Amino acid sequence: MSRFNESRLKNSDKAILSVIGLGYVGLVTAAGFGLKGHKVIGVDVDEEKIEGLCNGLSPLYEEGLDEAIKNMDFTATKDYQAVLDTNITFLCVNTPSHSDGSMNLTYLKKATEQLAEALRQKNASHLVVVRSTVTPGTTEEVIVPILRDSGDPEICVNPEFLREGKALHDFMNPSRIVIGDGDGKSGDLLQELYRDFGCPILRTDLNTAEMIKYASNAFLATKISFINEIGNICKKMGIDVYEVTRGMGHDERIGNQFLNAGIGFGGSCLPKDLKGIVARAREVGYEPRILNEVLGLNEEQPLKMVELLKKHIPLLKGKVIGVLGLAFKPDTDDIRDSKAIAIVEGLLEEGAQVRAYDPKAMPNFKKYYPHIDYKSPEEVLKSDATLILTEWDEFKNLDYTNRVIIDGRRILNARKARIYEGICW
Ligand code: UDX
């Protein structure tokens, strides 16, 4: 069987790709390859999303995504038959967690089965790329068996390392590309597709590629819990942890990134992936120690904000407490696993009246907490005390004088407050 897509790549520099699952990873992957001039067909079950995309509307906010989708050669459909017009299919279906942290593969399995059914009608070779985040062993044990009887496509794992808000930028400027396959050859075509991304391309087996993703996110999460722990010690001793990290970061073996102490890590990836690898480790008979502690520290860290507040206002019942920042990080409206949730819960449990502001995330927060007050930042600052939970740029220029501020994110200007406490400094 000729690998016509490989020669096609060499001849015209263009490929026709399909992407199954048009969530955050799928859309960014589609848009990224679109920016490189490739034609992309997207497949998703959500009709509304497809209709919007066909009219050039992105269903989610990511810097540059709207423009990329409008300008590229892109179509979206519900019909899996569309993959037959393409040579490479990226599986980007989401993999939510079960309550024990293990992965719920229902959607991914279903998508793979539908892909397998379509591919049975294909006579030419096809490459399937697993880009959904799956714990080590999943492709070999779950995906490969489903696809085996469907023309025997080539199968690779190609994890993404995209930061929310900067995902398209990260796609176009990757630190590395990891391609795992089972035979040392299936990844050749994908390597060809990535050839002008100007970064190292690492070839591994399937399980290793999957583990690289989890190990990377677990390491980032560990850095944060590590520095939060050092910060908690610093706080007790009157030392500024940010001065400490400045001194550490010059050592290239340590580096200065991901050492911002604060209220802990949230978002859709770090907490979920960490729980995922812990659950997988248990399945293979290993009880992780460091990773469990990283998670435990991350659960406790936000509650320190309420403890610090109570140092100044011992009885929170009936007090108005301001919250600046609800998103899990700045420049997003995403509140998934945001530490603001645990903190607002803590305040409500103590009987406080919460008054909150976030530049983008208020509508999302309102869905879960309709009964707290949503006000302007100036109004929020009039509360009995205010907690800073996200480092939005606009918080840097507020007037904090005469206020009581507990800072979870190191907003320097807030030090001008009448009473100022940093969580780890
Ligand atoms: C992360 C990884 O960075 C990315 O490579 C991966 O593929 C997906 O998960 P993202 O979830 O977008 O990306 O957020 P990120 O910018 O990494 O921040 C995660 C959380 O850690 C945020 O809540 C942030 O506030 C917190 N954080 C980050 C810190 O508390 N301190 C730091 O020094 C860095």
Give a structural overview.
With 425 residues, the protein is α/β, with parallel strands linked by helices. The chain contains 16 helices and 14 strands. The chain has helices spanning 4-12, 24-35, 47-54, 65-71, 106-119, 138-147, 167-172, 188-193, 206-237, 241-249, 270-283, 290-300, 303-312, 339-349, 362-368, 377-381, and strands at residues 16-20, 39-43, 74-77, 88-91, 127-130, 154-157, 177-181, 201-204, 320-324, 353-357, 373-374, 385-388, 404-407, 419-422. The strands form two sheets. An eight-stranded mixed β-sheet has the order 3-2-1-4-5-6-7-8, with helices on both faces. Mean pLDDT is 95; it is low at 1-8. Bound molecules: uridine-5'-diphosphate-xylopyranose. Uridine-5'-diphosphate-xylopyranose (UDX) binds next to helix 9.
Q: Characteristics of this structure?
A:
alpha/beta, 14% strand, disordered N terminus, 6-stranded parallel beta sheet, elongated
For the largest beta-sheet, the strand count, sense and barrel status come to: 8 strands, mixed
Proportion of residues in helical segments: 40-55%
Which band does the percent of strand residues land in?
5-15%
Number of strands: 14
For the termini, the CA-CA separation is 64 Å
Average the pLDDT over all residues and give the rounded result. Answer: 95
What ligand molecules are bound, each kind once? uridine-5'-diphosphate-xylopyranose
Strand order in the largest sheet: 3-2-1-4-5-6-7-8
Are there runs of 5+ residues with pLDDT below 50, and where?
Answer: 1-8
Q: Provide the succession of SSEs.
A: HEHEHHEEHEHEHEHEHHHHHEHEHEHEEE
The SS-based structural class is alpha/beta
- Label the overall shape: elongated
Radius of gyration, in angstroms, nearest whole number: 24 Å
Number of helical segments with 4 or more residues: 16
